[in-house]
């Protein structure tokens, strides 16, 4: 007896998570229609104005391993084993990410990674990719879907069996869900924005002008700048600052304002940024948004993944990694229940929603840590204690950063474990202090008896 055919799946959005999901589902025997609003990047090159490198860590590599792409991507990455802190004055300070200094997050080109995923999807016989094509709206009662040709503006109607929205933080698939009853949606913007700048390659054999195996941070309390390495020897810098106020973007109106801003706040970076003026005034000022919504699905007819379901601010370097985990979870559930997408989507949603919410808060908290705390002696001592405990008790104590970046422990579970560990450490410290006080009291009593 012939097994029933698996339902064809239409994915809107061929960015990182959408392209990876197409590969995963095709390998599982699903026919996939993949739509992307942009032109084919294989012909046009990378999209301008977006961050050109991202942090790839254990969760993302695990997802790539499932489709046999991890080794190819590893050849493109630059390991970053710690943070290099650039104070306004004084020497640089290095902070290892892991207790033994042997683990790294990895700088990877967004464009290069997306291209590799699209090429992998294009090689799958079960995947059909349509570029210059985006979803405008979906009627989930009839599944009539209006698709726009972004090159011409023409629209057409299609009726997919199953739709997956991988179309980003401003998802049209999610927008169609939002008009339905009992759909919860929250969108919150940070008071800070970001501007992308470039440290160009240097001369000579080693073209990197600063340490290429570190994520560079210029922490300045209410604002900061970071830099990640690229394979050509350049660094992508991102300035995060308030939109308004004394340190805000609104106070940088002229080249003279810009130079004065950097001379005062980032003096060691200024010589590394010869194209600062062009970069700053040419590149847009981006916004930072967190998106939370529920449900992530409409029965077995539609589901959301990645930023469409849970956009987060970039300060833990986990947005892409979390989206890739969505692909793993959704792929697993569809493989388990290929003819019951309602059950598959429900299980996927239950698997991922609590951990996406946990990551959203982690990312916001880490922004405060990166801009306000990493340069302080108290923070450095705290990290030293964490790493010492992890080296002494490697199975019993794992720092939160280790669990988030170097394992696949679910985010909410990592937060819960870190909270328990912190309570135990505080209790142990209080007990130790009490024992010391008692010992000193007994000693004093013996001496002065």
Give a description of the structure.
The chain has three domains: 9-77 and 108-187 and 289-368, FAD/NAD(P)-binding domain (3-Layer(bba) Sandwich), CATH 3.50.50.60; 189-287; 396-447. The protein is built from 14 helices and 19 strands. It has helices at residues 16-27, 41-44, 58-66, 70-74, 110-123, 172-178, 255-265, 276-282, 307-310, 319-336, 341-373, 377-392, 400-405, 411-447, and strands at residues 9-12, 32-35, 53-56, 78-80, 82-85, 93-96, 105-109, 127-130, 133-138, 145-149, 155-158, 162-165, 184-199, 214-219, 224-229, 235-242, 286-294, 297-298, 302-304. A seven-stranded mixed sheet has the order 6-5-14-15-16-13-17. A six-stranded mixed sheet has the order 8-2-1-12-19-18, with helices on both faces. β18 and β19 (302-304) form a beta hairpin. α11 packs across α14. The longest helix has 37 residues, at 411-447. The protein is globular.
Set down the secondary structure blueprint.
Layout: E1 9-12, H1 16-27, E2 32-35, H2 41-44, E3 53-56, H3 58-66, H4 70-74, E4 78-80, E5 82-85, E6 93-96, E7 105-109, H5 110-123, E8 127-130, E9 133-138, E10 145-149, E11 155-158, E12 162-165, H6 172-178, E13 184-199, E14 214-219, E15 224-229, E16 235-242, H7 255-265, H8 276-282, E17 286-294, E18 297-298, E19 302-304, H9 307-310, H10 319-336, H11 341-373, H12 377-392, H13 400-405, H14 411-447
Parallel strand pairs: 1-2, 1-12, 2-8, 5-14, 12-19
Antiparallel strand pairs: 3-7, 4-7, 5-6, 9-10, 10-11, 13-16, 13-17, 14-15, 15-16, 18-19
Helix pairs in contact: 1-5, 1-10, 3-10, 10-11, 11-14
